[in-house]
P-II family nitrogen regulator
Amino acid sequence: MQLITAVIQPGKLEDVKAALKGLGVAGMTITTVSGIGRQGGHTETYRGAVIKVETVPKVRLELLATDEDVDWIINEIVAAARTGHIGDGKIWVVPATQVIRVSTGEKGVDAIRP
């Protein structure tokens, strides 16, 4: 079992969700976040004053997958989230040593299947 975490542009969220749901991914956690990266932030004008905004809004997706499914899930996220510009995001994968569905007590792979 693996935990896949992807930080993507907010405007690509619906594309990524549609791609994953279309392939049968049962669930994911979505969080609105902000971060600092190579993009370097941006400037905004507020009441005539120029303000440097160093953090950029992003969306963080987290989903659990079996070891066998990780590569194709990552490929789908990359294909749906890519614009080809700096700031498209990052994906990382870490082992999930235990997964338990709270409502039923199911463990392991049974806990992430629909």
